[in-house]
Amino acid sequence: MSKIDSKIPEGSLEEKWSKYRSSVPLVNPSNKRSIEIIVVGSGLAGASAASTLAELGYKVKCFCFQDSPRRAHSIAAQGGINAAKNYQNDGDSTFRLFYDTVKGGDYRSREANVYRLAEVSSNIIDQCVAQGVPLAREYGGLLSNRSFGGTQVQRTFYAAGQTGQQLLLGAYSSLERQIGLGNVTMYSRHEMLEVVTIEGKARGIIARDLISGKLERHFGHAVLICSGGYGNVFYLSTNAMGSNATAAWKAHKQGAFFGNPCFTQIHPTCIPVSGDHQSKLTLMSESLRNDGRIWVPKQKDDKRKAVDIPDEERDYYLERRYPAFGNLVPRDVASRAAKERCDAGYGVGNSKMAVYLDFAAAIERYGKQQILKLGIDNASAGEIRKHGIDVVKEKYGNLFDMYKQITGENPYEMPMRIYPAVHYTMGGLWVDYNLMTTVPGLYALGEANFSDHGANRLGASALMQGLADGYFVIPYTIGAYLSNEIRVKAISTDHEAFVAAENKVKETIEKLFAIKGTHSVDHFHKKLGKIMWDKCGMARNEKGLTEAIGEIRALREEFWKDVRVTGTANEFNPELEKAGRVADFIELGELMCMDALQRKESCGGHFREESQTEDGEAKRDDGKFSFVAAWEYKGTGSFELHKEALNFDVVHPSQRSYK
Ligand SMILES: Cc1cc2nc3c(=O)[nH]c(=O)nc-3n(C[C@H](O)[C@H](O)[C@H](O)COP(=O)(O)OP(=O)(O)OC[C@H]3O[C@@H](n4cnc5c(N)ncnc54)[C@H](O)[C@@H]3O)c2cc1C
Fold first, then answer.
1. pTM
2. Does CATH place domain 494-645 in 3.40.50.280?
3. Residues paired with residue 224 on neighbouring β-strands, in sequence order
4. CATH code that applies to domain 267-421
5. Which of 185, 340, 494, 509 has its CB surrounded by the most CB atoms within 10 Å?
6. Over the stretch 229-280, which tens digit does the pLDDT of each residue have?
């Protein structure tokens, strides 16, 4: 019998969630008070889950490694959050959001989950507005929308270029309220380093107090992993420097299957790599593709300044190749198209690994509109430009400032230079419809789960999914499990399972210090990142992936023989934190390559060079690969593949086309 059961409710797609909600077992209020829930993570997924569960009456403990829940990586999200409100009256609906997401994910996600996501998307916006999140508004007061890739409607709600920050402040306020009421105990600067299981169920965690170095044991009737994505396995990514896979990886090693680990999103709109000493890449939000036009010179190795190249000598290659969606094709398509142009020798900048993102046309268009609005006659070109710049500044000002600070170039005068970079991971802990992993009582939410995005996430859908999971899904689905746990008294943390788990963590820390090798943790992380980017990045093939697996195995051995971890265990020691995280990244990197190797098709962000159409588009093989790959941990470097078949009753898979 299969070890995985997605537990998708019976019934028609439109009725599944509403019927489920009306029939899911509940926990009565007095029982909720004696049930403890551990939430690892305080980003949008964790903070929304912790505050909502506490509001319902559960006793919640919430953990994060930053000094404040407010500093979770979610704060970095710039562009926006999707919802099927149809405020624009441009044809949007729950069904269209569902359809766009299944298609955008290249038919590798579950219909039932995606439909639920589309259904609750509207509730999220209402919830956030009620919290006071300052989403952008039109002049008349209605919430404003803009476009994101992979759609032909405007359904993205935003707060300038700081949507994640504002949404997180909303979720954080709810969390703080519950902390103030004593319903949530917050453990900042704590890192979860092990999941404790008793008789096959998740019953707690071991966490390290990052200030004192002390190991702590915490009991919970259920544990929620909301620890974000693992893009930093590539070393260079747009993720926050601290984002890591440790919580998810420890859960995996305790029995939680890992879903679709190779599905990584490469975002087309990032500031290009500038040298070997860089430790971070910066995203220029996808929202910029609303107004920016992407191009390269038609002539190879054109040395002229961008502004000196006349329009007819520019190749607006996305508009040329994909006239229906133009610059707003999904990220996987836009990234590959940029790589194709640069590999063919048309790249710009010193490295020649960049393309232009140009706002000149938008500045002129907006300028002309403003002149008309203001009733100015005979405006000069300079006046038009000035008014156009004002409009662009209002929409994207903070992003333009950021670009200028990093590159020293003024994007109002000169097109930005951009190139794809690792940004998001669609893979993650495998979960069923209830968001439960294969370990009973252990859940995964937000970017940490393998999520609803299939092989490619559409822009502005991660915030939607994280908040859907936390505010609207887990509060119901967790009842299905906890209603059977009401007779379980809090288990003492003196239980042998807690002692054993703590000893395991202690041994790993001692082992790391005992190596006293010659290379820093970063040295190994960089090496891993290079292998991953070169062989499991934007394009993958059998030879490269096979080599990568061998190289990563060798790197793992070298790490455990030669890493140097400075300082001691009983103090604030970021080097020790990094060492543990990089050790986990190395193991995960190996699994990612194994997953990419077995998936001998191209789909979404996973581009196998052996499987492409004549015009270079990703070519799926639905007959053989229409499944979720769920990997079971079997010991270091050993994993067993389980397959969850994907059935499409409503949206029928076809070759994705944005032409
Ligand atoms: C630059 C950038 C811009 C983006 N813009 C958008 C956008 O406009 N729209 C959109 O939809 N998506 C966007 N995304 C994606 C989106 O921001 C993320 O997918 C989302 O915020 C993830 O939220 P999360 O709650 O799952 O995880 P995170 O916000 O990453 O939070 C993880 C939490 O887990 C905690 N944690 C992790 N490990 C441990 C551990 N071992 N012990 C204790 N605590 C732990 C952390 O402290 C943190 O609190 C963007 C991503 C990037 C990188």
1. 0.95
2. no
3. 39, 443
4. 3.90.700.10
5. 509
6. 999 999 999 999 999 999 999 999 999 999 999 999 999 999 998 877 888 8
